[in-house]
Specification:
It contains six helices and four strands, in the order E-H-E-H-H-H-E-H-E-H. It has one domain (about 1-140): PF0523-like. Helix content is about 45%, strand content about 15%.
């Protein structure tokens, strides 16, 4: 399961990132504008979990593998530029393999102010299909 919360912080993003994995969780920060659909998140999560389990992952860290799939790139730097958090006053905390309450606890421990769960926009069926196809093809190039 993946938990995604909308949050903000007074701390700069580069100070928050090391805190995310301090509790042994797999977490990352995303730009809310980079997420277009609930299925996009679900697909990136499932693809990251599967590629890691099958030994085909590009990254050793599951949260980075998730970013690669979500960012539709086999290159970490490009994926971070595309989907990584850009502003500390509006970001998403994504916690992979989260149990109930873990995302909220991590947000609190990192000093994040949570404004609630993230509700991504809804795309049309054809737009969503195209987005998922682009994600699937992103590992070819």
């Amino acid at each position: 399961m993946i938990s995604i919360l909308r949050a903000r912080s007074l701390r700069p993003i580069n100070e928050l990132l090391p805190l995310l994995n301090a509790e042994g969780l797999h977490a990352t920060l995303l730009d809310p504008k980079s997420v277009s659909s609930p299925k996009q998140i679900e697909a990136a999560y499932e693809l990251a979990m599967r590629s890691t389990k099958e030994g085909r992952a590009v990254s050793e860290r599951i949260e980075m593998e998730f970013l690669l799939w979500l960012g539709q790139s086999p290159h970490v730097g490009k994926a971070i530029l595309r989907v990584g958090a850009k502003k500390n006053d509006d970001m998403l905390l994504a916690v992979l393999d989260a149990k109930t309450g873990q995302a909220q606890k991590l947000a609190k421990d990192c000093g994040l102010e949570v404004s609630g769960p993230f509700e991504p926009p809804r795309l049309s069926q054809s737009e969503e299909k195209l987005l998922l196809e682009k994600m699937a093809l992103s590992r070819l190039g």
